[in-house]
Amino acid sequence: MIKFSRKDVAGIFEIAGKDERMGFTMTAAQMRKYLAARGFRAISQRGSHVKMTNGTDTTIVPMHVGDLAPGTLRGILADAGLNVADAKKWSGKE
């Protein structure tokens, strides 16, 4: 089995033109505030996961401690029909 370091993997993404890094992070609480500012409201909660909707789109926000993983962040935004650039601008990390 070949082992790669994070630096090696990041270099591969840059070479392929598919740099998947977000360039910013958000906590679950920040994501809830962002979604609320975009017209979403919490409709249910099961354990540490909150279901939010705006009437058309629905997404689940895991209310865990710390920053959301980049893939989770991207998934929540995609489910909500929102874009990464707007979220990055809202977070003030542009």
Task: Write structural notes for this entry.
By secondary structure, the chain is α+β, with helices and mostly antiparallel strands. It has a single domain, classed as Metal Transport, Frataxin, Chain A. The protein contains 4 helices and 3 strands. The protein has helices spanning 6-16, 28-37, 70-80, 84-91; strands at 41-46, 49-53, 58-62. Strands 1-2-3 form a 3-stranded antiparallel β-sheet. The longest helix is centred in the N-terminal third of the chain and has 11 residues, at 6-16. The protein starts with 5 loop residues before the first helix and ends with a helix. Mean pLDDT is 82; it is low at 9-20.
Task: Trace the largest sheet across and list its strands.
Answer: 1-2-3
Q: How many structural units, i.e. domains?
A: 1
Query: At the fourth CATH level, what is the homologous superfamily?
Result: Hypothetical protein
* Mean pLDDT figure: 82
Give the C-alpha Rg: 15 Å
CATH topology group: Metal Transport, Frataxin, Chain A
CATH class value: Alpha Beta
Q: Main β-sheet: number of strands, strand sense, barrel status?
A: 3 strands, antiparallel
- Write down the secondary-structure element order: HHEEEHH
Low-confidence stretches: 9-20
- Number of beta-strand segments: 3
Category from helices, strands and their pairing: alpha+beta
> Which strand-content bin applies to the residues?
15-25%
Query: How would you describe the oligomerization state of the chains in this entry?
Result: single chain
**Contiguous helical run count:** 4
**How would you describe the shape?**
globular
Distance, first to last CA: 39 Å
